[in-house]
Amino acid sequence: MFTGIIQAVGSVAGRELRGGDLRLTIRSNQLPLADVQLGDSIATNGVCLTVVELTGDGYVADVSRETLALSTLSDLAVGSRVNLEKALTLSTPLGGHLVSGHVDGVGTILERREEARSIRFLVEAPKTLARYIAHKGSICVDGASLTVNGVDGNRFDLNIVPHTQQETITADYRPGSRVNLEVDLLARYLERLLLGEQAAEPAQPASGVTMALLAERGFLR
């Protein structure tokens, strides 16, 4: 588990294709690694990766085919900057929100505009994720816990303040940039809970939480 509070920005120092998947070497002089052991997890642009080797100034991790298909890690080149966060402990302040490091989908930056000292981004999410994105709710973008400032269908906007620009890779985003998205864990579990006994049934083309289901459960009057 993670908090979505980025601890350091690193860069891709090595990229090696191995039998259809990928091995990444990440370098960061900012991320403290003294307490990191082989097998520990580090969120890399929001993707929970397992450390398989420590290099002194970074770590090596393998990326599976599934992760490559569901995230932007396949886009990374040597020199690409990445957000980094070590797994939380019981003493870690929960400054953001609970993040699993399991990417739900890839979004696209549609617009970027300066707004005083902040940067405002318009992001398009996959339509399947739209129901989990709420005005003033939390969303994880490339591992960073951010507040949704507005929602219109499957598009939402973010306001990135100067501190976040300095401590993450968000200032690098341009129209067309692809970003990893993880929706709020509570929203996903709540949807599953609302299905009740239907959750045990095979998925149907129109399955999920519908207005009819909400009315049946007493949530609508």
Amount of helix: 10-25%
Task: Compute the CA-based radius of gyration.
Answer: 18 Å
CATH architectural arrangement of the domain at 8-86: Beta Barrel
Compute the number of helices. 4
Secondary-structure-based class equals mainly beta
Strand content: 35-45%
Order of helices and strands: EEEEEHEEEEEEHEHH
Question: So what's the CATH class of the domain at 8-86?
Answer: Mainly Beta
Strand order of the largest sheet: 1-2-5-4-3-6
DSSP strand tally:
12
- Poorly predicted regions are none
Q: What is the CATH fold-level name of the domain at 8-86?
A: Elongation Factor Tu (Ef-tu), domain 3
EC number: 2.5.1.9
Keywords: Repeat, Riboflavin biosynthesis, Transferase
Pfam families: Lum_binding
Protein name: Riboflavin synthase
What does this structure look like?
The protein has 221 residues and is mainly β. Helices cover 13% and strands 38% of the residues. A hairpin with a 2-residue loop joins strand 7 and strand 8. The mean pLDDT is 91. Keywords: Repeat, Riboflavin biosynthesis, Transferase. Homotrimer. Catalyzes the dismutation of two molecules of 6,7-dimethyl-8-ribityllumazine, resulting in the formation of riboflavin and 5-amino-6-(D-ribitylamino)uracil. Its EC number is 2.5.1.9.
Properties at a glance:
single chain; 221 residues; mainly beta; Elongation Factor Tu (Ef-tu), domain 3; six-stranded antiparallel β-barrel; six-stranded antiparallel barrel; 4 helices
